From TrEMBL:
SUPFAM superfamilies: Isocitrate/Isopropylmalate dehydrogenase-like. The gene is leuB. Belongs to the isocitrate and isopropylmalate dehydrogenases family. LeuB type 1 subfamily. One of its GO terms (cellular component) is cytosol. It comes from Halalkalibacter wakoensis JCM 9140. Homodimer. Pathway: Amino-acid biosynthesis; L-leucine biosynthesis; L-leucine from 3-methyl-2-oxobutanoate: step 3/4. This is 3-isopropylmalate dehydrogenase.
Amino acid sequence: MKKRIAILPGDGIGPEVCEAATTVLNEIGTMFQHQFEFVYGDLGGIAIDKTGNPLPKETLTICKNSDAVLLGAVGGPKWDTLPGEQRPEKGLLGLRKELGLFANLRPVTIYDALADSSPLKDEVIQGVDLVIVRELTGGLYFGEPRERRGEGKEELAVDTLVYSRKEIERIVRKGFEFAEIRGGTLTSVDKANVLESSRLWREVVDEVAKEYPNISYSHMLVDNAAMQLVRNPRQFDVIVTENMFGDILSDEASMITGSLGMLPSASLSEDGPGLFEPIHGSAPDIAGKGIANPLATLSSVAMMLTYAFSMTEEADVLSAAINDVLEAGHRTADLTSDERAVLSTTEMTNQVIQALTKKAVNS
């Protein structure tokens, strides 16, 4: 059966890494006899330029009528002076809300071939394999009231942190489910010593934990979690936390690997299409130069194959091909200081396809 994928290239390097993704998906389709249909939509800055809206209705319709959504990146300095409600990032936040994408998964895994790229010592990062499960549709980013008022020295800004018990239960249960699948432990991160919302969060975690008696869990304050991710990241297996804390901690955790260009993410709803995207930004300084690292996007494709289509074998083969390419010493500019060894986006994509082909021949 044909799988319909909404492709939202977005801004900056987004179109380049999305092109890499569709090329690889077509190769996987040929290898495993699948049919993928790509339907394109505009999101973010490019959508503002075309329609004045960072999330056009046409794009939202395309996404809702698809089996999965692949996003490149949004934003850039061109749109930084726009009011908050009109900026590219508002389109992404709106898409998450409209699709009910409440659970963001960000795996952090060390590739042995890239261990030297990490700012942390080898003995600290060896064996790191964790997942951050971040609540995505509530908290400070969506709470009301949200306003600025007054003038001059009397001007003030208000953002409101709001969570309902239902929202917390939903994401916490997802965290326990992943801990159960992985056969690991759960760390719930909050700020219960200061925030009322975190005190509710902690209460809900303790209640939901009773449904998973075989899962060992603990609570950790967010400032301590930030420190522990650098000090001893191996202690973590699944981390579940609210929206803003998850945003910050997942970016911090990404640097354990040494490059934002390597990490994927998946945002899942209860029953609709999921959104899959690399966690790096739009990198406008290198856009159009053909040197962007496509591997985070290709890893996001692997997550799509797993979570959207239940194609676990295909996902495993793609992930193994990415690892083989890195083990063979292939690098994009963000992964090496040796300019002579740098591959372009297209060249790196072709290396992954060659690795896929070898696995098909040997299987």
